[in-house]
Amino acid sequence: MSIIALFTCLLLQQQPSMQPVIKQDTTSIDTTRYSVLTYNKSRDSFLFDKGFEATTLTVQDVKHIEKIIKVIVAEHNKIVKATNKQRTKKSKKKANDAVLAINTIKHPEKYYKQLIAVINAKGEKEVWVNCFCTDSEKKYWRKGVVMILDGGPCFFNLRINLTTNTVIKFSVNGVA
Prior knowledge:
Layout: H1 3-11, E1 34-37, E2 53-54, H2 59-91, H3 97-103, E3 112-119, E4 125-132, E5 155-161, E6 166-172
Parallel strand pairs: 1-3
Antiparallel strand pairs: 2-3, 3-4, 4-5, 5-6
Helix pairs in contact: 1-2
């Protein structure tokens, strides 16, 4: 079972609030950790198909996103640990803690996050979440999407359908 399928099974019973959103309510969002970017079809075409339209996020949406991130990261870290154990058994060497540390995501709640919210063709709310753990990427993070090659688990992103409570895509950067 893939990490996304497993995650979907875990969250099926936790449906997010379906409150209508009238305006962007970011007054209670920690803006030192979050940057809510408005969907721009020309800039963000690599994230969403043409049929998507910009929407807003509520504080409840952001709290729900954090819960989803916590679950998906925990599952990712379990898979990394299990994979490293299998490699260790095959090589008959002690587990390499450095390799495990390189691949695990630590304290995702402390990461900086860029959020882009859209409504898909079915009328469902989706959000793309871009996460990074270093201050150096914050120079332009409120103006455009931060894109980094490599960087390991300090950089990961996911796309979530908040209406169906489904993680559509989860990706952790590689290590050069």
